[in-house]
Amino acid sequence: MENLKELNTSTRVLMGPGPSDVHSRVLRAMSTPLVGHLDPEFLMVMDDIKVMVQETLQTQNPLTFVVSAPGSAGMECCLVNLLEPGDEAVICIHGVFGTRLADIAERCGAKVIKVEADWGTPIDPNNVKKALASCKPKLVAIVHAETSTGVLQPLEEISKMTKEAGALLVVDAVTSFCGTELKVDEWGIDALYSGSQKCLSAPPGLSPVTFSQAAIDVLENRKTKVQSWFLDLTMVKNYWAGAKRAYHHTAPVSAMFAMREALRIVLEEGLENRFERHRKNHELLRDGLERLGFEFLVSEPYRLPMLNAVRIPAGVDEALVRKRLLDEYNIEIGGGLGPFAGKIWRIGLMGESATPNHVNMLMAALKQLM
Amino acid sequence: MENLKELNTSTRVLMGPGPSDVHSRVLRAMSTPLVGHLDPEFLMVMDDIKVMVQETLQTQNPLTFVVSAPGSAGMECCLVNLLEPGDEAVICIHGVFGTRLADIAERCGAKVIKVEADWGTPIDPNNVKKALASCKPKLVAIVHAETSTGVLQPLEEISKMTKEAGALLVVDAVTSFCGTELKVDEWGIDALYSGSQKCLSAPPGLSPVTFSQAAIDVLENRKTKVQSWFLDLTMVKNYWAGAKRAYHHTAPVSAMFAMREALRIVLEEGLENRFERHRKNHELLRDGLERLGFEFLVSEPYRLPMLNAVRIPAGVDEALVRKRLLDEYNIEIGGGLGPFAGKIWRIGLMGESATPNHVNMLMAALKQLM
């Protein structure tokens, strides 16, 4: 075989649905020579990450940790640990990631009761109420920030009715984490997973997760083994928080170095400032896009600031424009998924990519291309 | 919360059971600014990695790819895709990782027929033969390089009897990959997983996997869904090799940059040269350790060159010496697992850590400490 050449990628501007641009401090921390996954210094890095994930999720949950795999594995981690065959699970579906939640819950052997909303709109709490009354729910799972549609889902009312039904609330916060308000304890969230590569602006590959005491109680009272060994929290928790820090798997040391630095940057900026920055740049982008004739898919009160889903104006060859944005301007934006393929764009303003310069680069390029 | 300080880890010399030292070229490639996980340039990186993993595994298998998680997830990936509830699986156990294989197979709903050997010795093919005759085996799973004991398991005879029984051969090559001979096609291996952080010397977090056509046939004729969504190869394969390169999960872009560079370094050196380097440095270490009074756990023909398991001489406080090696010399070696805790050391000479300087540093430090 002929030897392959040195890596030589283009310098992209990442404005799709994630990954987002990564700060040079994070890249530098990631390239630190390694220490072992059981080195006392690495256990301290894990402790630092745990404390900072608690802070950014606004939770005191002792079982707060990072799954050594991307957000989809975090999703699976929450469901496989909480569901057993025969359990009933209310799954809210208003996009790709709700659909995925239902798929995974079924693979756990659960009976899934679906609560659906048109893609691009939020779930109606009244429909959750009806679903809860129709079964003996072990949990309700819902996506806080639907990356496939740009919908921000209000959670507080649904959380209350979930508690009243004696069920756990499982939340997908992959895209909202570190970009908009997310209060795990105040909102009564029992299990939550996120991703490293959205508003946290670390490289993809890790999934922060937190479990409430009620979720731990369910975990500890399982009648069957968790079907995934890799994601079995009855073991993983002893690596993250046990007195002995028992070996489970080899943690991705470099990715954890990167996550630690990305979390430090978030806390230096401050959560409220960071949320405000995402809001402001969203408004700047919105004004520019509307001037160009784009319409938002989602009605104003439910729009995510970091994931802007807009309909493609008639006559625009969306795939061609996206390709030219990438090829000629090095700007990545996202296309639509599922029923929205070819119909919408998904423009990300996440973490390091949520700046006026990003908005200006994109708007100028779009004007030149359209 | 008070802000945490900048990452400030010690410069370790990694001579444990992995991770091993990582070349600066790999760290540099990893810190390249990101591209998107569906960027045509990233799909080319995936293609490059696939070709180089085929080359290093000496296989033509088209379904050769990388699981976006550590080796344990690669193990789970092989078993969850090949096993269905009620299947019979012959699992060979001669250390921690065979035990883990059996645990995962049981979580898949398989009936496990165990073939055991004393830890520190290889599996006897005659016992595999008896087990195969006692059931209708779907697969035989065996560890090629038992990281918990340092045993190199010969595979060719067991492979032949597995084929004769109409079963698939599943192999754990986490520690042997890129460090000693491993011929997937010639040896008739049907499914194999490895890890990035051993003799490949990339950071931990990824697991190269390959499936033969016979394994793909089993996958495609499943009656039930794969119990893990994240590891379901009926979907993952469309991201790695499909005509459309369909989105499944967000791949760990930076870790893949690192893996590409680590594979390039392996192929520049050449597989045979690399294996010879591991052998020579193992011999250097062996001679030094024996002069200091250490005895190897494993008899000579079955010793792994990259994972040296030695008994602790009487009177040596193993935990204290290991701690002093780390604190005073920055050298990490591994302790024993399970029944060998406190009784053996596991000294790694993997990838970038397999050099005369590593051996000399360790031997000199040990002489000063003991």
What descriptive keywords fit this protein?
homodimer, 370 residues, alpha/beta, Aspartate Aminotransferase, domain 1, Aspartate Aminotransferase, domain 2, 2 domains, 7-stranded mixed β-sheet, 4-stranded antiparallel β-sheet, 12 helices, 16% strand, globular
Outline:
In chain A, 40% of the residues lie in helices and 16% in strands. With 370 residues, chain A is α/β, with parallel strands linked by helices.
Structural summary, described in words:
Chain A is an alpha/beta fold and 370 residues long. Chain A folds into 2 domains: 106 residues, Alpha-Beta Complex (Aspartate Aminotransferase, domain 1), CATH 3.90.1150; 243 residues, Aspartate Aminotransferase, domain 2, CATH 3.40.640. The first copy, chain A, is built from 12 helices and 15 strands. In chain A, strands 2-10-9-8-5-3-4 form a 7-stranded mixed β-sheet, sandwiched between helices. A 4-stranded antiparallel β-sheet of chain A has the order 11-12-15-14, with helices on one face. In chain A, helix 5 runs parallel beside helix 6 and helix 11 packs across helix 12. The mean pLDDT of chain A is 97. Chains A and B meet through helix 1, helix 2, helix 3, helix 4 and helix 9 of A and helix 1, helix 2, helix 3, helix 4 and helix 9 of B.
